[in-house]
Structures are given as C-alpha cells and as structure tokens.
Design a protein that fits this description.
By secondary structure, the chain is α/β, with parallel strands linked by helices. It contains 8 helices and 7 strands. α5 links the parallel β5 and β6. It is globular and about 55 Å long. The structure holds nicotinamide-adenine-dinucleotide. The site of nicotinamide-adenine-dinucleotide (NAD) has 29 residues, from α1, β2, α4 and α6. GO terms for molecular function: 3-oxoacyl-[acyl-carrier-protein] reductase (NADPH) activity. It is an enzyme of class 1 (oxidoreductase).
Length: about 260
Amino acid sequence: MSSKGIAIVTGAAQGIGKGIALRLASDGFDIAVNDIPTNADKLTALVEEIKAKEREASAHVADVSVEEQVKNMMEEVVKIYGGVDVMVANAGVMKYASIAHTSVGDWDRVMAINARGTFLCFKYAGMQMISQGRGGRIIGACSVGGKKGGQMTSAYCASKFAIRGLTQSAASEYGRHGITVNSYAPGTTDTEMVTYMDKSHAELTGSAPGTFKKLLEKAMPLPMIATPDDIAGLVSFIASKESQFITGQSISINGGMYFD
Ligand code: NAD
C-alpha cells in the first residue's frame, strides 16, 4: 500500500495512543511516535510493531509540555518524512484527588501536560501544515471529563475543558487552510490511567481493587469499558479523507456515560 501520509501520535508508548498508532499504521500512514524518556523502550518496541505492518516508523522522545521539545520533534519528523499530515495530541495525565487534596503542583502538572502540551502540538502542527499547503488533520484527546466535571478530577476536567476550547479555536483559525481540528472524548477506557484511578479509589475508600471499574461499568447504558481499539476506530475516521466536513468537534465515545 502506498503511504497515506505521515501521522504523529504523542503519548504513544501505551494505552490509547499505542492503539491509535497501530490503527493508523494499518490504515496506511507512516507513524512518528512520541513519549517521555521513561517509556523510551516501549516506544522502540512499538516502532518495530509498526514496521512489521510495512510502514515507516520512528520514535521521538519528548515532553509535550516543553515548547522547545515539541518544536524539535516537529523538525525531526519533517526532516525524516518531508512533512506531516496528521497530528494526534494524545498524551495526557490524571490526578485523582479531591480539590482539597490537589496541590498547586498537581494542578500545574496536569494543566502543563494536558492543556499546554496539546496547545503546543496544535501550534507546531498547524504552522507546519499551513506552510505545506496540503491541508491536514489535527486531533486532540478530550474526555467525558471535558464535557462534564466530576468528583476527584478537578484539574483533569479543567484541562480537558481547555482542550475542547482549543479545538474549537484552532478549527476556526485553520479551516481555511483545509485543516480540520477535532478531538475524541472517551469515557472509561481500559488503560493504565483507569487502573491508577481504580487503585486511588480503593486506597481512599478501603474497597477492593477493581471496585471502581465495576461501578463505572454498571452505571452506563452500555455496561462495558472501552478498549484502546474502540477509541482508535474513531480516530481512524477523524484522520481519514471521509471526515472532511467535520471540524471543531469533541466527539463523544463513552458508552452513553454522558449525552451531548
Ligand atoms: P496512559 O496513562 O495509559 O497513557 C498516557 C501516555 O502519555 C503514557 O504513555 C505517558 O507516558 C504519556 N505521557 C505522559 N506525559 C507525557 C508528556 N509530558 N509528554 C509525552 N508523553 C507523555 O493513558 P490513556 O488512558 O492511554 O490516555 C491517553 C489519552 O486519552 C489521555 O489524554 C487521556 O486523558 C485520554 N483519555 C483517557 C480515558 C481513559 O479512560 N483511559 C478517558 C478519556 C480520555
């Protein structure tokens, strides 16, 4: 299959990001994967998995909250592949704590990675795509927490509301360049992030590990937890040519946890 273009996926070493990277590779994109230094080995293994699908792939270790590192990553990708067609700003972190137990440090870390990190990816991908003049797809990771606030997740929800606002603003600016900007807004998806929430909930309430996941599962119209592949299927569509008339949206994929 000839290449459909080059896609960057941040926070791709595990979870939803890894699922998206593998799915976009199956769709025919060459893939530049990003994560932080502690996950560099997993990134290297993922590059091999993508290459086994007969696509080009490269690993780019960078912290998305640091402007210089995002700028350098974009330059590295353009040097290797000659451009960028899809940016998936997936990297994100969660702090599970009440407002009283959320420190300024916790708040700043969540906002820096989730909100500033996504802004920087949207900024440098947009600049590159505009200079190329061939349109593109910019995609962010919102959440059900970007539609509705919830207990124990104040910093996280605030950061995801920021991503929804950023998605709308970037769509407004970039549309005339043929660039669409959308976000996926998952509900509970089976990754290390939800395992961390489950563990934190068990510690705070004295309940058995697994209780939080079961509670969430039972509370939903579709009583299940998503897999990263479920989310990757939506991203595959947003990244495709067929989605050309969709922009500025944060698309819910949440088992009915929240109705827009
Ligand atoms: P995860 O914790 O399994 O993976 C997140 C990845 O991001 C990790 O590999 C981590 O190392 C990387 N990362 C963290 N900080 C980074 C930084 N500064 N620079 C680059 N990479 C960094 O989580 P996940 O569940 O796969 O989440 C992926 C995205 O989906 C996140 O933005 C998350 O908020 C969002 N999301 C997840 C769920 C869910 O239920 N799992 C629901 C809604 C939204």
